[in-house]
Amino acid sequence: MITASNLSKHYLINRNKASMTGFLKSFIRPNKEIVGAVKNLDFEIKTGAICGIVGLNGAGKSTLIKMLTGVIKASEGDCQVMGYRPFDDRQEYVQNIGVVFGQRSQMIWDLPVRNSLDILRPIYRVEAAAFKQNLDYYTSIFGVDEFIDQPVRLLSLGQRMRAEIVSALLHDPKVLFLDEPTIGLDVLVKKKIRHAIADMNKTKGTTVILTSHDLEDIDTLCDQLIVLDKGQVLFDGKKSDFVQQYRSHKTVVIKLADNATSEHALLVQHQAKLTGDQQWTLAINEAETSATDVIKQLVNALPVIDLTIHEQKLEDILQSIY
Amino acid sequence: MHLLATYFKIIGLRFLGATQYKADFFIGISGLLIQQMVVVLVVVSIFSGVDELAGFGLFDVLFILGLAQLVRGLDLAYNDYIWVEAFGGFAQGSLYHYSIRPLPIYLQILSNRLNIQSLGPIGIGITLLCFSIPELPTVFTAADYALLVYFTTCGLLTMFAIKLIAASLALWFGRSGELMQVLHEFVEFIRYPMSIYALPLQLLLTFILPFGLISFVPALYWLPEVGWPLLDAFAVERSILLISYAGGYSLFFFCVSLCLWHFGLRHACVSGT
């Protein structure tokens, strides 16, 4: 459904010094440099997937989203979404997608949210009955119905963001692009948005492309992951495969019976740390040791009454690979 | 038709939004209205001392002024938001919003604002035309009124084109408002007969920034006794020359501006989150 092949975007950057001399020199000897924002990207996203695009600042996430939404033209390569070439077929293509840029509003500031939503019906040429059905459904799952008659300028950031997402969905887009949808929001609003996106994806089968610096968004929602680093794809595949491939540590927490000796040789051998009353925590580097073997040893040798295994969080794994 | 209907729906909402600030609304209208009245008073006071200005009588000048104000007012009404884009709007990412809606980008820019302040120049313009037309040497028939609409449309096309050319540069450089402002300053010259200015300025306003066709050229059509050296340079009948110059030149500028705009959209280099 979404394919990118050899997709690249270059920008021409002025490298002259930011001073009066640099300004004058730029006329005589312009020092320009071509900088690649994204380079030779190849990937495929299937219909109905929720795909997370992650990377550090400047990794090329927003540039990629802008190329996929038809906002900017690729310098090289090709991308197709539902058979459309986003930039070339813009007007017809955007009829089928919804886009939310987290840091920019599309609502009419001085009027109630309802006005900003209603105007989308003629813009996207949606039938009245279908529009009403979507309006009821989306305002309900995103909780926008609670403040739909309030002027946009009086909304909190969280309320406005929920309204923005609803506004991107009322025409039943087949693909929804969310660029930092939870930026600056509190945990409760984030949770509500994540829940609504998952619900919508399940009910309507909408494909979702999501970029976020909040990896909890990615971890909760996405089944596919594209990891970008300096404009190149570091990983493209299932999130579970990524975790499997890059996860290096598991943390095991064991609780021993009250009568157990406090300094057991096995615990010392595995560099376990006492983290509570008879509670020990040990990190297992799976590259060196099998977690299953270590756990077997511990359970056989010690009076274990409780055992918990913590997988590395996506955030920790990403931190470790950058 | 659908685009036009959508435009009017959006602009209706924008208007509704603007009316939420009632004080701004009335101050805006009355501010420009007073400014326009001062301009008229200046013209009337000039003519209290002289009978004519370069062959133009009081009502001839009021006709020129009326047409100039009407065209400027109409342009201000529907095509004001492009100033915001030229002064850095594109650089701040507005183009992204326009690009993700299934409407032509310029139509979306137009539908961002209906400038109510334009009621001042439009009102003054129509009033001046109503007072001056009966005093012109030509008796206006239905065909003349149709021609007046034609010249007004040519004037609007020219204003639109010159602003679009300047605004298109913002697609490359991020900002071109200052240039647009400089070019727009020349529109001040069209309040009075162009023949009172030096020849280089007349040539500039006729061929390079053709604001002259907004009010002066139409006035020449209805004032057959008034001469203009540039007219004599062409061996074509006066009325045909004036009509075809206004239509042809405004259309040419309009096409050039659209080409530049579309070329700019394909090469826009705004970036960043």
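qc> Chain A touches chain B at residues 11-12, 37, 62-63, 66, 69-73, 90-92, 94-95, 97, 99, 101, 103-104, 106, 108-111, 115, 119, 122-125, 151, 179-180 (CB under 8 Å).
qc> done
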